Amino acid sequence: xxAAAGEARALPGCRPRRRLRPRARTGTAPPARAGDEPLLRxxxxxxxxxxxxxxxxxxxxxxxxxxxxxxxDSSVALQAQEEIIEMKDVFSVKLKRRRFAxxxxxxxxxxxxxxxxxxxxxxxxxxxxIHLNNLSEDHCQSWFRxxxxxxxxFQNRPKSLKVFVNPSSHKREATHIYNEKVAPLFKLxxxxxDVTVTEYEGHALSVLKECELQAFDGVVCIGGDGSVSEVxxxxxxxAQIDAGKDTDYVTxxxxxxxxLGVIPAGTTNVLAHTLYGIKHAVTATLHIVMxxxxxxxxxxxxxxxxxxxxxxxxxxxxxxxxxALAEKHRWMPSSQRKDFAFIKTLADLKPxxxxxxxxxxQILQEDSEEKDRITLLYLGSKDQWQKIQGHFLNxxxxxxxxxxxxxxxxxxxNTRLNNGSMALIVVQNTSRTEFIKHLKRYTxxxxxxxxxxxxxxxxxxVKVQPRxxxxxxxxxxxxxxAEGDYPxxxxxxxMKEASEVHVRVHPQLIDLYGVNTEDLESSQVMCNCI
Length: 530
Known about the structure:
With 530 residues, the protein is an alpha+beta fold. The chain folds into 2 domains: 38-64 and 81-153, Roll (PH-domain like); 160-362 and 384-468 and 486-522, Sandwich (Tumour Suppressor Smad4), CATH 2.60.200. 21% of the residues lie in helices and 33% in strands. It is built from 10 helices and 23 strands. The chain has helices at 75-78, 137-152, 174-188, 203-210, 225-242, 270-276, 281-290, 318-327, 334-347, 432-441, and strands at residues 38-46, 49-56, 59-64, 83-86, 90-98, 108-119, 125-133, 160-165, 192-197, 218-223, 260-264, 293-302, 307-311, 313-317, 352-360, 362-366, 374-378, 386-398, 422-428, 454-466, 486-490, 493-497, 501-513. Strands 12, 13, 14, 15, 18, 19, 20, 21, 22 and 23 form a 10-stranded antiparallel beta sheet that branches. It has a 4-stranded antiparallel beta sheet with strand order 1-2-3-4. A hairpin with a 7-residue loop joins β16 (362-366) and β17.
């Protein structure tokens, strides 16, 4: 019988001549769902056991072939456990050959190897290989073609990527991470790459303005938060240029043309943590390879004269001053520089006077007692600006939760990746002791906003207008640098601006490779705006 020799065949077909004991079943077999109809059936050796293997568009399943027991012992049949692989978890298939040292082509065919994405504990992904051994060339070629056709049917999976590697990020690990962990998986998945190793700040931005983006299915950045922010800004800026929009005044931006992948190789890696729930290069790479795409909200940061930046989050006050001080000490090692800047800024803690104007957002809130009922909640009047003025230690504006190892719940745990809102978090002037208590809460599961000097708002637009002091109090303008600009921390990048900054959120403006990590435990935030 050809099947016994390993020939691929479509059902119905012949069975091997020896008698096989049917697998033990309980109950009635469910009807085949769409995509479950068998495409091929054949015999392979898997794990040193001959197996009856069936391929459908949705899954690959196999079970050991067991001969009829001469004693009629039914316990033998129970050992024939069926194993299943969902085809959506498979990212590559290769013909397995034995080759001599130095031989690059040809070789003795041994079978087929299937590479699967495996979801381990704590959001971590890894790859594993399943070997289907069979020496028949025709048999394996037929199975290989069918498997490749199924994999090519997954539309979101990239075939060509533009890759940016920042060799200066954190401990200069980005190049090593790409060569040792990322590139091998891209090659295994037959993804073509065009790699640019950035040489200076703004290099990725200049490349994105000129390159032929239509030749790629996505863009990938290996680096820290600053590198990712630059690439995201470049992608969105390129989209506005291609759409013929005025890039100095963007009120209704168009979406980025291709998805962005983030491989963490920095210090905090906020965006990677938010997308993957973990800092793990292999996990990030497999999300890209598998084509897991998540639409994400983006903010525009503008002055009355020009667009400053596309970004996901920003801090004004303490968070920005600490970053500005760290940038002045770039000669220090990365971790020491940031620790020094944090402690020094905390020691010189001073508030800054400014006026905050914001548009509260109309949101949907789920009733905690009746899960099926949605209550419409208005934060203030629709389209009516609200203002607060005072002395603030820190102002945070965030369109994403901003998870990181130092803030496992996120810097803004009550916002989401794509609900069209921003979290405005205002820390009013208080003692250094109380401010430190607030900062420590970020590292725990406790509510970091449950302090009388912290206010939170859910908004869609924010304007931040610093108030310059004059006369004898002018020396208290602690945020100002020599040029008269105030520092802003936008996605870990330092920007300086003297005038009012207008922040708008734009729902689902960019697609990122990753998942929605909204399984975080929700917290009850003390908020004075409800």
